[in-house]
Design brief:
Blueprint (H helix, E strand, L loop, with lengths): L7 H16 L4 H4 L15 E6 L2 E7 L14 E4 L8 H9 L19 H14 L11 H12 L4 H7 L31 H10 L6
Antiparallel strand pairs: 1-2, 2-3
């Protein structure tokens, strides 16, 4: 499949995964199937919507398993974004209206959990459409970018550790205090998906490539 065969369903799916990756600071294995494993992948039965005045205001997600969080894993609350051009809550609701009926949150029309490789392919399309070097980004970039954005807004390392469900202070490797807030990950300083780049990708959302 190439970019000329991208459909509205592909766009809806890609956008929901990307927005949740960023706003929920999710590992990709918590959203999608990586290799043959779905050990940590979110189940649709562990997602709850909270409504007020007929509108979904937030989504609560429970992780039945997480890579480093031990037995106690705090629920993740994703709020409706009224000050952002793109809302993860609305994107997820739109995706769920067209998704399959499998047990995992991100299920394709074949009722099977979507693979990480699917998301990599469409992320590559989006980056290419923006004129960005796709070799400098990967599925982890959204999580890293969210971590850096939180730090740039003054969040404490303890808050970042809790939000990102880091088992240790591993998030510190993303921060270089001597030059402010940046990332140090595999020595690729551009391997981050900060808010502005995220918004560019969500704006583009593959459609111009069709």
């Amino acid at each position: 499949m190439n970019s000329s065969s991208v459909t509205r369903s592909h766009v809806t799916t890609f956008k929901a995964i990307a927005l949740l990756s960023y706003y929920g600071c999710f590992r990709i294995s918590e959203l999608l199937k990586v290799g043959m494993s779905t050990d940590h992948t979110i189940l649709v039965s562990n997602v709850w919507k909270k409504y007020s005045n007929g509108q979904c205001q937030s989504i609560k997600i429970h992780l039945h398993s997480s890579k480093f969080s031990g037995d106690h894993i705090p629920d993740i609350i994703i709020h409706h974004r009224t000050v952002s051009r793109h809302c993860p809550v609305l994107a997820l609701i739109e995706f769920l209206s067209v998704s399959g009926n499998g047990e995992h949150l991100f299920t394709g029309l074949d009722n099977k959990c979507i693979f990480r490789t699917w998301f990599v392919k469409y992320l590559s399309y989006a980056l290419t459409g923006l004129g960005l070097d796709k070799n400098l980004y990967n599925t982890h970039s959204f999580r890293i970018g969210a971590t850096i954005d939180m730090a740039s807004k003054g969040a404490l390392v303890t808050q970042i550790k809790l939000k990102g469900r880091f088992g240790s202070y591993a998030s510190l490797k993303y921060l270089r205090p001597e030059i402010g807030v940046t990332v140090l990950f595999f020595n690729w300083p551009n391997l981050i998906m900060l808010y502005d780049i995220c918004m560019m990708i969500f704006d583009t959302c593959i459609i111009p490539l069709i």
